[in-house]
Structure formats: structure tokens, C-alpha cells
TrEMBL record:
<dbReference type="InterPro" id="IPR043128">
    <property type="entry name" value="Rev_trsase/Diguanyl_cyclase"/>
</dbReference>
<feature type="region of interest" description="Disordered">
    <location>
        <begin position="408"/>
        <end position="439"/>
    </location>
</feature>
<dbReference type="InterPro" id="IPR053848">
    <property type="entry name" value="IMS_HHH_1"/>
</dbReference>
<feature type="domain" description="UmuC">
    <location>
        <begin position="7"/>
        <end position="191"/>
    </location>
</feature>
<dbReference type="InterPro" id="IPR022880">
    <property type="entry name" value="DNApol_IV"/>
</dbReference>
<feature type="binding site">
    <location>
        <position position="11"/>
    </location>
    <ligand>
        <name>Mg(2+)</name>
    </ligand>
</feature>
<comment type="subunit">
    <text>Monomer.</text>
</comment>
<dbReference type="InterPro" id="IPR001126">
    <property type="entry name" value="UmuC"/>
</dbReference>
<dbReference type="Pfam" id="PF21999">
    <property type="entry name" value="IMS_HHH_1"/>
</dbReference>
<keyword id="KW-0963">Cytoplasm</keyword>
<keyword id="KW-0234">DNA repair</keyword>
<keyword id="KW-0515">Mutator protein</keyword>
<feature type="active site">
    <location>
        <position position="106"/>
    </location>
</feature>
<feature type="binding site">
    <location>
        <position position="105"/>
    </location>
    <ligand>
        <name>Mg(2+)</name>
    </ligand>
</feature>
<keyword id="KW-0548">Nucleotidyltransferase</keyword>
<keyword id="KW-0479">Metal-binding</keyword>
<keyword id="KW-0227">DNA damage</keyword>
Length: 439
């Protein structure tokens, strides 16, 4: 925890849905749900208009349709999200060179090198307001919620307190006062299973957690998790903002339409990913010391755990074994949307002696994971272009017919027309190719 409030967390509000409303004028102010549109689909993001009906991220699309049948249900347009995210990250980097993107719609910023002159509340609020206005201008009207505090944990908590389009500054010395009334699930990694374990011990709020000794927490939830909870309950968090640099890691990850709950399946998927990472390392003549797993939970909380070897490796069973052991530290009972394995601390050599005493590790059998159902040619929400009408988006399709609303972010609500699904005058639209630079 820092002496000054110099860590900022920015979270774009209902990001995917907000981009869709920006680019589709007829949907502004109306319920919009982005995600899988099929029977087994899952909501990725719901606009605030849809949230009033109880639609939430990670809810099944079936339930979302029952709660809000008049919403627009759209598949994702990741080219639009990536482009918008790049614009936001550029705004953040103009404030400070130390920006750590967490996903397309959120990032930490280290304000220490931002030359603010002072870190009093008035200065920080003025800077936060300018930043939010800059984001709105760069994105064509999207709003962001900002939290500023003395650590990553506090800044993240603060950004959630006044959504949407909010700004909360937590000054040094007020952190524990802020946290104490909150439920223990405000702490990263406290999912349903851990929360239930704590509830049975009479621990409901952060204030309750603060009174529990480290030994007792270790007994309740294990050493790694207990140590983290003990520190965060006291607002102790010294993690640095880690800006992206040139690629210094090799990783593989997968996102799943249906939340994973089977631990043996997750273990098998990590094993498979570890093998893919090892193959890439060997292909480029590299090895690495630090093995990291990335886990995105059902509520979109993203966690990572890592461990470091004394010498670099490209040995798939070793990477897999360590990845599986890291997974054991996490509470995944609520479901997992994303799993990933990465190796960093890269080198161009391997210390073979590291493995000479190890027995060969058998590759685990991995239960097959059904790939996402291939979407129809004309998916709801996708960008299209007509030879006469110009650009628009798919309103719906079926029975050999596709219906298009012709409008863009620069127009008003446009007309609706229907065409045969195989019309030669209608084609998917994609933006010009970019250089593919990372966000």
C-alpha cells in the first residue's frame, strides 16, 4: 500500500453493449445483450437498460430472454471492441507510461510518473474527470468508471462504487474504513465456496475477516489463499502496476461459452495448453522460468497465479504439473469462463540437469470440449454492406431471409430491409486490416 493515492483503475461501463449502442443508433437507450445467442449461449455484457430487468453477465441467454424478451440480442464484434480499446489505452498512456491493461475494457494506471504535482483529493479528482472526458471523446461517447487509491485492490474496489460513469477517490488512511462494511466477496478470489466456508465460521464482512488470525484463515482456506485474505482484509496490497512491454512470454488460453465447473476437466485443459506452450517454446528455441495460469471466473473476475523455477524449461509435463498445482490454490466452484497457461522469464537455453531425477510424467487424458457452435452466416449484430444501401447490421435471419438495418455510428436510426440470405448484393463488412498491434 502506497503513502499516496497513486493507483488508478478504469473500467468501461457495459463495454460491449455500449459499443453496440454507439454504432447502432436505433439501439441507444434500449436494452442490449451481447453474447451467445443460441440455446446454450451465455451473456457477455448487458446494457444498463437490460440490467433493470435483471439481466447480468454470465447468465444464460435463455434466462436473459425470459427476463427481457424485448432486448436486442447480438453476437460480439471484436474488431470494434479492439479498436475502441486501443483508443482508450492511448488516452491512459497519455496520462502515464505505466498502464497495465487487464482486458479490453479495464486497466490499471500508475500515477506516480504522471507529474500531477500533488496527490491531494482535489488534484486527483480533477485529473480523473479530465481522463473520463478524454475517454468519452476518444470513443465517441462511451463512459468509464474510475477508482483511485493507494493500491490496485483499493482502486479496483473504488471503481465499482459509483457505476456507471463514476469517479471515487480513496485517500490514504481511509481504506479499512471503506472496506469493513463490505461483504467478503469484494476480495478477489472469494467465490461461492470460499464465501460459504467463511460464512460457516461466522465471517460475513471484511470487518469480520479482519478480526481473524492468519493461522485461523490458513486452517479455513489454505495457506496461499489465507495469507492473501489476511492481507487484503487489512488493505495491504503492494502489487506494482506492470505495463506491457515487448513480448516476453508465450501463452495459450481458451474462453468457454459454458462455464467450467469440473476440476478434472480444467486440469486436463491446462495440461493440453501446457503442451501447446511447450511446443511453441521449442519451435522458437526458447525456455522459461516462470509458469503462470490465468483464470477468469463466472463473474468475470480475472485471477492469475505463478511460480518460478530455478532454471528455465520447455518441458511440457513440468509446465503442466505446475499449472495444475496453481489451479488448486483457487476457488473455482462458481464456474470458470477462461483458462490459460503462460511461460515467461524467457531464455534461449535449457538446463537439462533440472529434469534428470524426475520420472517421466504421463500425459493426462483430456475429456473432449465441444467447440462453440458455428454461428450462422448472418449473425445478429454483425456488420454488413449492401451494394446500393451501404453499411448496416444484421437485425435477424432465418428461413433463407436476412433482415438488415442500415445505419452506422455517424447516421441516425436507419431503414430496415430484407433480402434473400444468398443475395449477391449483401456481404459481411470488416474494417481495413491494421498492423495487429497489441492493446
Amino acid at each position: 500500500m502506497r503513502a499516496q493515492a497513486s493507483v488508478l483503475h478504469l473500467d468501461l461501463d457495459a463495454f460491449f453493449a455500449a459499443v453496440e449502442q454507439r454504432d447502432k443508433p436505433s439501439l441507444r437507450g434500449k436494452p442490449v445483450v451481447v453474447g451467445g445467442v443460441g440455446g446454450r449461449g451465455v451473456v457477455s455484457t448487458a446494457s444498463y437498460e437490460a440490467r433493470r430487468y435483471g439481466v447480468r453477465s454470465a447468465m444464460s441467454t435463455r434466462e436473459a430472454r425470459a427476463r427481457c424478451p424485448h432486448a436486442a440480442f447480438l453476437t460480439g464484434r471484436f474488431h470494434a471492441y479492439r479498436e475502441t480499446s486501443r483508443a482508450v489505452m492511448a488516452v491512459l498512456r497519455a496520462v502515464s507510461p505505466l498502464v497495465e491493461p487487464l482486458s479490453l475494457d479495464e486497466a490499471f494506471v500508475d500515477l506516480a510518473p504522471a507529474e500531477l504535482g500533488d496527490h491531494d483529493e482535489t488534484t486527483l479528482r480533477a485529473m480523473g474527470e479530465r481522463l473520463r472526458e478524454g475517454v468519452k471523446e476518444a470513443t465517441g461517447g462511451l463512459t468509464a468508471s474510475v477508482g483511485i487509491g493507494t493500491s490496485k485492490f483499493i482502486a479496483k474496489v473504488a471503481s465499482d462504487l459509483d457505476k456507471p460513469d463514476g469517479l471515487v477517490v480513496v485517500m490514504p488512511g481511509t481504506e479499512t474504513e471503506l472496506l469493513r462494511p463490505m461483504h467478503v466477496t469484494v476480495i478477489p478470489g472469494v467465490g461461492p465456496a470460499t464465501a460459504e466456508r467463511l460464512r460457516r465460521a461466522g465471517i460475513h464482512t471484511v470487518a469480520d475477516l479482519e478480526t481473524v488470525s492468519l493461522d485461523e484463515l490458513v486452517r479455513l482456506v489454505g495457506r496461499a489463499h489465507g495469507t492473501g485474505l489476511h492481507a487484503l482484509a487489512r488493505a495491504e496490497d503492494d502489487r506494482a502496476v506492470e505495463p506491457e512491454r515487448e513480448t516476453k512470454s508465450v501463452s495459450v488460453e481458451g474462453t468457454y461459452d459454458t462455464d467450467l465447473t469440473d476440476r478434472s476437466l480444467m486440469s486436463g485443459l491446462l495440461t493440453r495448453q501446457a503442451g501447446q506452450v511447450a511446443e511453441r517454446l521449442r519451435k522458437h528455441g526458447l525456455s522459461g522460468r516462470t509458469i503462470t495460469i490465468k483464470v477468469r471466473l463466472h463473474d468475470f473476475t480475472t485471477l492469475s497465479r505463478s511460480t518460478t523455477l530455478p532454471s528455465p524449461t520447455d518441458h511440457a509435463p513440468t509446465i503442466a504439473r505446475l499449472a495444475r498445482s496453481l489451479l488448486e490454490e483457487l476457488d473455482t466452484s462458481g464456474g470458470v469462463r477462461l483458462l490459460g497457461v503462460g511461460v515467461s522469464g524467457l531464455a534461449d537455453w535449457i538446463q537439462e540437469e533440472l529434469f534428470t531425477d524426475e520420472e517421466p510424467e504421463q500425459e493426462q487424458d483430456v475429456a473432449p470440449v465441444e467447440p462453440p457452435t458455428q454461428r450462422s452466416t448472418w449473425a445478429p449484430g454483425m456488420d454488413v454492406e449492401h451494394t446500393e444501401m451501404g453499411r448496416g447490421w444484421v437485425w435477424g435471419s432465418g428461413r433463407g431471409v436476412v433482415t438488415v438495418r442500415f445505419e452506422t455510428a455517424q447516421t441516425g436510426p436507419g431503414p430496415v430491409r430484407s433480402y434473400p440470405a444468398d443475395s449477391p448484393d449483401l456481404a459481411p463488412w470488416r474494417p481495413p486490416e491494421t498492423d495487429g498491434a497489441p492493446v
